[in-house]
TrEMBL record, chain A:
Species name: Darwinula stevensoni
Top-rank taxon, per record: Eukaryota
Stated name of the protein: RING-type domain-containing protein
Keyword Acyltransferase recorded: no
PANTHER family referenced in this protein's UniProt entry, alphabetically: GEO07743P1
GO function terms (MF aspect): ubiquitin protein ligase activity; zinc ion binding
Entry keyword Zinc: yes
From TrEMBL, chain B:
Active site: 117 (glycyl thioester intermediate)
UBC core domain: residues covered: 32-192
InterPro entries referenced in this protein's UniProt entry, alphabetically: Ub_conjugating_enzyme, UBC, UBQ-conjugating_AS, UBQ-conjugating_enzyme/RWD
Biological source species: Darwinula stevensoni
Keyword Oxidoreductase: no
EC number: 2.3.2.23
GO biological process, one term: protein modification by small protein conjugation
Purpose of the protein: Accepts ubiquitin from the E1 complex and catalyzes its covalent attachment to other proteins. In vitro catalyzes 'Lys-48'-, as well as 'Lys-63'-linked polyubiquitination. May be involved in degradation of muscle-specific proteins. Mediates polyubiquitination of CYP3A4.
Family: Belongs to the ubiquitin-conjugating enzyme family.
Protein name in UniProt: E2 ubiquitin-conjugating enzyme
SUPFAM superfamilies attached to this UniProt entry: UBC-like
Keywords: ATP-binding, Nucleotide-binding, Transferase, Ubl conjugation pathway
Enzyme class: transferase
């Protein structure tokens, strides 16, 4: 398969080794005509630029399947996590009142019971507090509509 | 433990260093994931979904599933049955399961050892490569059904941006859909795993 035109932009990170990386980089270089398009993509990921700070906040889960106990986090990491928790706690929450409009928490797929603690995201999607808070620590997006919640959070946090 | 939970519920755990939120949550998570997986298993038994069948590898372990995927029509995999395993973490659905094909499947996004490399099974924090958009990553609303639907559509339409099997990727691209022998891309046609 000498003429591989496949755009190799990175291997699956489930099993990358440094060898894989250099190998892939190497084959990119040999691809000639496509070099420019490839190197465009090899830079820092454009869609994430504005979220750069947020991405570092995932340090609580330093890598997949690894979560470090709070005592082993650096001070900087602790501050970021504390900030994230602070932000999440400023999202409106309440007690489910039996409203017919929302019936089920789509994270745990369990129907809301009157008295459940629920959290309302700016997009108006509603989840159990326990279900969504854990998720928001990992990603500040609504799992149903992928609406980022951080901007809304930041404004309400600052005005508070 | 209980104290930490109370503090957390009252929003008094801003100094996270002493907050045991995650300790308590991981214990709660086990109950939640068990319930959620049992519910999905029951739903799939009651209302099977076209294109695959699903069950447990071992009836005593709700975290390990075995699925049989029917090669989607009009693809190189048509006519084949492909067995795969799903391994759920205790904190599912906050974290994604891992998926591995037991049957041989030759595909750009499936490692030669069977590991499925699909962006929706990657955690949102995994930004090492940075080529996936947030909405292509894992979401806690994914179920066995939505995962398998994504995998089935991946079989027909590989993601060219992150080949796990580079040989399959280049082969797919050079021969691609014009390849007329479906057997090439799935070796255990029809008899997938029934040898046991
Ligand atoms: Zn829930
Ligand atoms: Zn939403």
């Amino acid at each position: 398969m000498g003429n591989c035109f496949w755009k190799i932009m990175g291997n699956c990170f489930s099993s990358p080794t440094s060898d894989d990386i250099s190998l892939l980089r190497g084959s990119n270089e040999r691809m000639g005509p496509r070099d420019s398009t490839i190197s465009d993509h090899l830079g820092p990921p454009p869609p994430y630029v504005s979220h750069e700070d947020e991405d570092h906040a995932y340090m609580y889960f330093p890598s997949p399947n690894v979560s470090r106990p709070a005592s082993q986090l650096t001070e900087e990491e602790q501050i970021r996590i504390a900030k994230r928790i602070g932000l999440i706690q400023h999202l409106p929450s309440g007690v489910y009142d039996g409203s017919k409009k929302i019936r089920e928490c789509v994270i745990c797929m369990i129907e809301f019971v009157v008295g459940d603690h629920v959290r309302y995201l700016p997009c108006m999607h509603t989840y159990h507090v326990d279900c969504i808070d854990d998720w928001l620590m990992r990603s500040l997006t609504c799992p149903s509509c992928m609406e980022p919640v951080e901007s809304a959070l930041l404004t309400s946090y600052e005005t508070n | 433990m209980a104290n930490a939970q109370v503090l957390h519920a009252k929003g008094l755990c801003h100094s996270l260093v002493i907050c045991n939120q995650y300790v308590t949550q991981s214990i709660m998570a086990e109950g939640q994931s068990t319930l959620l997986l049992r519910k999905q298993l029951a739903d799939l038994k009651k209302n099977p979904v076209e294109g695959f069948s699903a069950g447990l590898i071992d009836d005593d372990d709700i975290y390990k599933w075995e699925v049989l995927i029917i090669g989607p029509p009009d693809t190189l995999y048509e006519g084949g049955f492909f067995k795969a395993h799903l391994y759920f973490p205790k904190d599912y659905p906050q974290k994604p399961p891992k998926m591995k094909f037991i049957s041989d499947v030759w595909h750009p996004n499936i490692e030669k050892n069977g590991d499925v490399c699909i962006s929706i099974l990657h955690e949102p924090g995994d930004d090492k490569w940075g080529y996936e958009k947030a909405n292509e990553r894992w979401l806690p609303i994914h179920t066995v059904e939505t995962i398998l639907i994504s995998v089935i559509s991946m079989l027909a339409d590989p993601n060219d941006e992150s080949p796990a099997n580079v040989d399959a990727a280049s082969e797919w691209l050079t021969c691609g859909s014009s390849l007329s022998a479906p057997g090439k891309f799935g070796e255990e046609q029809s008899a997938a795993g029934d040898d046991a």
